[in-house]
Amino acid sequence: MKMLIVGSNGFIGCSLAAKLKNLGFQVIEMSSTDGSGIDPVTGLLPVDFSFPKGVSTVIYLAQSPLASKIIKGASHALSVNCVSAVRLASMAVHSKVQRFIYLSTGNVYAPSFDKLCVDSPLRRDNLYSLSKVHAEEALTLFRNQCEMIVVRPFGVFGDGQKERLIPNLIKKVRMNEIISLHPSPSEMARKPNETDGLRISLIHIEDAVDILATIAIKGGVNYLNLAGPEISSIQSLAQKISRLSGKESSFIIEEDCRETDYIADFQSAKEILGRDFISIETGLTSLIDSSVA
Predict the structure, then answer these.
(1) Collapsing DSSP states into helix, strand and coil, what is residue 274?
(2) Neighbour count for residue 50 (Cβ, 10 Å)
(3) How far apart are CA 235 and CA 202, in angstroms?
(4) In the predicted model, is pLDDT for residue 293 greater than 60?
(5) Is residue 216 part of a domain?
(6) For residue 95, what pLDDT is reported?
């Protein structure tokens, strides 16, 4: 079986490509960082791009780094996250590809402090989520001709990751920086000086890659929350990091409320993984040990 990974040099892409190769699959890798993938300036596939022969599964992991910049990044974000994905999907269908996996985001869900299921309401009021929702909806047009799978990851973390929630928290604890905690509206009304901050479902990169590899091989779902069973708050994560690294953590409760949590229904991911998830503490220990070495 031959698989095509678009965005193969990213945090998830590198691990997934290695996993699939170890399982004996032929992997074609495309990345904007080495000139083999999406144009880093336009966010589009090259005009002369031709779809590789013999591919059975496409895994689209490409992400625009400008998705948070509404003015400067709108065109690029929509091009990478939506237009290029749809163009590649249409080429995949024409080439009789069996399966197309699109990595979306848990941020597509409308703000909520409740558990988020795959049929929970979506949001379209920011560029990042809008670009992903547009792609998700456009890809359904091909569902009668190719298995289309939308994966919505929540808080993937692990060795090698940079400039995301967990590595940033580790850095703040080590530098003895004050960590901000934002209360929910109900917490602010009930106990304005007490909050653990944002709550989020996390998943270790090894678990995430095992799940992605399984659906790349077997398929079987239309939408999937890529998340683990543990719900962590910013405060609890910082306290774990403090204990594991021998550092102190300091907090400040901000006056402005957070608008949401990111708590995922993970049952489908659990069934696909077929084993116990790696615990948050185990993952943090590995991260802290590797960064010290």
Answers:
(1) coil
(2) 8
(3) 14
(4) no
(5) no
(6) 96
Domain encompassing residue 129? 2-153
Distance CA 202, CA 196 (A): 16
* CA dist list (Å): 28 to 8, 24, 54: 9, 13, 11
* Cβ burial, residue 238 (10 Å; 0-12/13-18/19+): buried
198: Cβ contacts below 8 Å, ≥ 6 apart: 182, 233, 234, 258, 261, 262
Summarised one tens digit per residue, pLDDT across range 30-49 is 998 887 789 999 999 988 89
Q: Who has greater pLDDT, 64 or 191?
A: 64
172 and 31 within one domain:
no
Structurally, how many domains does the chain consist of? 2
Q: What is the DSSP letter of 1?
A: -
Question: Is residue 73 assigned to a domain?
Answer: yes
* pLDDT classification of 291: cutoffs 50, 70, 90: low
